[in-house]
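quick one: flavin-adenine dinucleotide bound model?
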Amino acid sequence: MRVAIVGAGIVGASIARELSRYELEVHLVEREADVGWGVSKANTGLIHAGYDDDPDRFPNRAKLCVQGNRIWHRWVEELDIPHAWSGALVIAKEESEIKMLGELLRRGERNGVPELRLLERDETISMEPNLRRVEAALYAPTVGQISPPQAVIALVENAVDNGVRVHLETEVRGVEVSGERVKGLKTNEGFLEADVVINAAGLHADEVSRMAGIDYFEIRPRKGEYLIFDEDTGPKPSRVLFPTPSERSKGVVVTTEVQGHLMVGPNAQDLPKEEKKDRSTTPQGLREVYEKASEMWPLPPLSRVIRTFSGLRPEPTGGDFVIRAEDVWGFVNVAGMRSPGLTAAPAVAKEVVRILEGMGINLREKAGWKARRKGIHNGARGRVICRCNLVRESEIREAIGRMKRVGVKTPSVDSVKFRTSATTGTCQGSFCRIEIARILAEEFSVPLWDVTLKGRGSELGVGDVKVLLRR
Ligand SMILES: Cc1cc2nc3c(=O)[nH]c(=O)nc-3n(C[C@H](O)[C@H](O)[C@H](O)COP(=O)(O)OP(=O)(O)OC[C@H]3O[C@@H](n4cnc5c(N)ncnc54)[C@H](O)[C@@H]3O)c2cc1C
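yep, here:
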């Protein structure tokens, strides 16, 4: 049985890893030059507890978030994914917000979230003395943080180790259906036969679904912007801090992300449905994020920001995740994976296994399936390339070896960045980008100017300018 998964984000990668346990031929198809470059690249990276989602309105979100949180506790260990189980506080900054905390507590208990507890003002302040205004808080100790691109890489490396084949720079342009059965995928790299197609195409899952003639939902982008401060600035909270949430979003979060930087964001701005590529940040948006976060926490000045970025939430019609086997036999939608999609991803993957079994597919476990994968660890010796994060040449060469093992064909600085954290420190790559590019050029046997920042179209140069001088 051949299964093709469209999309190597956190959802597709989790499904690929989960299906790699069984006697199946699994193909992971991704149009970008590397895995994890879609929605999964730019988000808050939180493993939510599961008290946000109303189980009557959003049953998939409510159920899969809590289950996913539990599974991540195991997966980060098995796959050596950098993480922090810091816990979270939802802050009521005035009396009128305390009622909402009670609602979140009841909802969380109904969803099965463990260890939730309401805190009074003094206890909250003893946990986070720098909070600006606080009347009470909801404490959720099971909340954690991961680096989402690193999580995707870990899952894909482990999936490949267990036999999954990855097709990068392969864009799905059509789904072949005959006699109400899926036959395969039409791509820029030719036809890929498949008995089952799992659509995990993130923001574009509605388009891929339409390719199979299934057209009952739409995905709209909702932008969120962020600010990251320099490592030596603070104060930094020990826990993830949420404001009391609104209907549309969980609000602007203040957190110390896994690499130790103070990070604030996101805001929430609905974009027209065709603007699925708009990853720009705006002065107004960033100002809004800064001001909202400042209501809760004393922030360093804006001059200490080292990076801004934005991500697009794939908001589905109806608001809940769309996870189901469709009437076209073999076509499974795993769409509308807005927040808490990162948290839910492992549970979604297990749900997909149940769906395949429900379709009558006999899933036999493979002998010798490997649960574990090791990350790249800092060597103590060798030439330092990224001075801010102390990343050495040996780690960069190892990252490149791993890129090649998962099928990366185009050398990109971003591929190294997400595997090693090089270029993400104070200087944001000013010193080391060119060194990394030189190593990439050597390892891929290409001229330096053919190395890209993030895939085709972002080449570092156009050619050897010395040719012009020689004329
Ligand atoms: C601002 C923001 C904050 C968030 N914060 C959190 C959080 O803290 N916690 C949490 O749990 N969730 C959070 N989320 C949600 C989470 O990021 C998403 O649910 C998750 O990343 C979605 O993963 P995915 O695999 O479905 O999509 P993606 O990562 O986008 O993967 C889909 C892949 O499909 C590929 N693709 C698309 N079309 C095609 C095609 N035709 N052919 C081949 N490949 C194709 C894309 O290139 C992409 O790589 C947040 C989201 C945003 C935007």
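Residues 120 and 179 are 62 Å apart (CA to CA).
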